[in-house]
Write a structure and sequence with these properties.
This protein has 379 residues and is an alpha/beta fold. It is 53% helix and 7% strand.
Amino acid sequence: MRPTTLEEFLGQEHLLGPGKALGELIRRGDVGSCIFWGPPGSGKTTLARLVANYTDRHFEPFSAVTEGVGRVREIIKEAEERLKYEGRGTILFCDEIHRFNRAQQDAFLPWVENGIITLIGATTENPSFELTAPLLSRCRVFVFEPLNDEHIRMVIERALPEAGKGKGETGKVTLVPDAIAALVAYAQGDARRALNAVEAVVQHAATLSPFPIPVSRDLVVSVLERPLPAYDKSGEQHFNVISALHKAVRGSDVEGSLYWLARMLAGGEDPLYIARRLVRIAAEDVGPGIAGGRVGARRGRGVPRYRAQIEPRLRGLRAGDGRGRGPPRASRAASHSQCPDQADGGSGIRWGVQVRARVRARLRAAGVPAGGAAGSALV
């Protein structure tokens, strides 16, 4: 299923499109050590394999999760012999490179420096936080974006003939357009998740008699579990989302502030932490502009200590609404009730560079566009 040429590769046009630096380097076979930073299922491993194909170098996969420095030394010894006797270089692809500690990352330095290996590291975490400065100084960082809906649709359409071989009377699987749309929404820009979903749907359909042709949307939805929102309580997304909340309130974007607030709650964030941040927003951003704003935030802060989870959710949403546009109104009750559903549904809304204050310089240097969806919540 992996593409074998750059023309078959989906996504990352900002890196591989006509005239783009990485695409031209790959076509010339002149790629040096680099770091691929992006979300899961965005094509990091696939592109690393394409680099090896275009440069005629030996591709050596390596996982920082299951292997250590001892295996790195073995690979480097083999790479030295390969270069000496065959004149062929080696690409060491280190998946999840951020799992290595600083001392382990330093093991790459001399061999990257003298050209024995070309290191391509893949990471889902911010390299500025997780990788050492000496390693970053020897590697170029390329930022991958999630695949858009059209790319995911093409991944699904390519996978269906292979997944459906020998299935049903016709030996193939077809899906109604709504079923494909449901798979696209479920994937949230992750090609791997899309492929796993296609496999699960086909396997389930194969157990039915007769085999459904075409597969309906209801059958697809019944197979797929509800996607969880992408969130972590201590990593980069934690800071991105709370920053998005601050900027949504600052821009008087009520819908945006409610969404980001519900996104944190759906991701398991401590309601008391959110309440403290709302008090800070009331003090720093709202100030005396809204009468009673700080009092409302403080009242919301005390609720998580004494009430069930659903109550602080509602109080927190109302407090966030109040920070964004003043005293809450009854007409916005529907927004309060709908926001948790939007966040629980695994919405793929992402943030722009302005929200990601801690990484803004590196992202802008890498050419990541500043804009995004959800209006002023992202600017």
